[in-house]
Input
Amino acid sequence: MKVLVIGSGGREHCLAWKLATGSNASRIYAIPGNPGIANIGACANIGISKNDFDAVSGFVEEEGIDFTIVGPEAPLVEGITDHFKGKGHEIFGPDMSAARLEGSKVFTKELCVKYGIPTAKSIKFDRKDYEKAVSYIKKLKDDDFPLVLKVDGLAAGKGVIISSSKEDALVELAHCFIDDIFGPASDSIIIEEFISGFEVSLLSLCDGKNILPMVLAQDYKKIFDGDKGKNTGGMGSYSPVPFVDGPLFNKMLEEIIYPSYEAIMKEGIDYRGILYGGIIVSKGQPYLLEYNCRFGDPETQAILPNLENDLLELMLQCCRGKLGNSTLKWSNSKCVCVVLASKGYPESSSKNDLIEGLENFNNNTGSKDNSGIMVFHAGTKSQDSKIYTNGGRVLGVVAKAESFISSRKIAYDAISKIRFEGMQYRTDIAKRVEEEIT
Output
């Protein structure tokens, strides 16, 4: 079966790598792909925005591609699944109606309130309500802070802002409504209570009727150690999450994930693909922070190496409504993913810096070598047989071992062999579980 992966990041490299380990993918393509994926399959330099959908589906027809998998959220929110289905092509990912769960935080919040799904208390403001929002913030008490501002639409993982004071909240509000730093994504915003606790990512496979949860992962959003600094698209992750026991995991499913999927179906939404819940646990109670309509990045890089099922077969079952009584099989290994980001990220993004040391890792394919290391490309480009940074998050270094102590050591030892100008990364990915879990 010929398979196309849409996207160019570390998530897409990991998906392509996992598909290549199965028995059903005869050839893998990517649009637009990256240098790491190019060592697995053929990459086509085609855009993936709404204006490019005809070109993408045309490529599928020309190459005789049987199945397409969408990595990033933007094409899903813009309706690429609807476009493909209209052309008679099979594609993995929710349609535009279902993708609203990520495309509109207001939509998801209203769904949670309607069906009693635990989530933070919030209030919505539209751009025209700027003065009302200012008045609302000014009337808050000091102990109402910190609070959270969320832009309604897609903002590349940077549309959630935690404000510690009135002054800070008013500045961020102006950034959204007056300075327009997020564009149309902030035509509406949510101001919600801040819930203190720990966050986990719970990804589930969906076929329109059945939902199949995967193992938990934990993501690190802040740029610096100790969760300091600006929000990013994710600076690392690990899986599984051993301090979440069976009863708490079941509580997440019974109070959030399963009721959400039932609510989705009651709303007449045919959700097929990945439903990714960002969940925070406070004093033993889980609350939904957000839903995403695709695989997480970098959670995917920490989850998929432990999946023993054929990924392509699972995806086909999702699209065809045939998950049924399927079960997932997992190895007992512990995975740690550490992201290497470019100089200045996330405020700015350095490009064209030579990356050295990748020759140590099995020709940069992302395949596992004898040391248990996988290096997934995210923001890279190839020129004159050399690999350069292409901005943002550059590489994801993934280690798989029998313990978190071993996997952390393997990952950070590998990072010591990679160099590029201004390279930055967190040194505390999975440190908590290394210290607390024996």
Q: What stands out?
A: Confidence is low (pLDDT under 50) at residues 366-370.
